[in-house]
C-alpha cells in the first residue's frame, strides 16, 4: 500500500511590511527569518496533532515530528519548507518507527478510522499561520537590532 503524504501549504499574503523588512535585511538573513518562522508554524501544528493522537503505547505520539524538507536541486530564495510527519525508521520493533500511523488515521478493513492528523491541521491552520506571521515579525526586529537598523 502506498503511503499517502498529507501536504499542507500555508500561503501568507498581504504582508508588505514583512516583505520590505526581509528585503532590507538581505537574502541570507531573510532566509534565516523565514526558516525560523516556518518551523515555528510547523511545531504549532505538531503540538495539536500529538494532543489528538490516540494513545495505546505512546509510540505514535512520540514519533510525530517536524523535519525540514530539503528541496532537490536549487533552492528558491524566499522559500522554506517544514513537514510534520509520523516518523518511520528501521524495523517494526524500533521505537522510532510508527509505521501504522496511516492506518490509525484512515482505518483498515478490521479497524475503524481514528482521525487525528487531518482534524488537528484543520483546527490549528489559522493559529499556525498567525504563529508564522508573529515569529517573522519578531525575527525581523531582532535581526535589525543585530545589524544596527532602527
List keywords for this structure.
150 residues; two-stranded antiparallel sheet; 5 helices; mainly alpha
Query: What fraction of residues sit in β-strands?
Result: 5-15%
- What shape does the CA trace take? elongated
The averaged pLDDT comes out at 82
- What's the tally of helices? 5
Side by side, the strands of the main sheet go: 1-2
Please state the structural category.
Answer: mainly alpha
Number of strands: 2
The count of domains is: 1
Q: How many angstroms separate the termini?
A: 56 Å
Uncertain stretches? none
Radius of gyration: 18 Å
Helix content: 40-55%
H/E element string? HHHEEHH
Q: How would you characterize the largest beta sheet? A: 2 strands, antiparallel
Explain how this protein is built:
With 150 residues, this protein is mostly helical. It has one domain (16-69, 78-147). Helices cover 51% and strands 7% of the residues. The protein contains five helices and two strands, in the order H-H-H-E-E-H-H. The longest helix is centred in the last third of the chain and has 31 residues, at 117-147. The N and C termini lie far apart (56 Å).
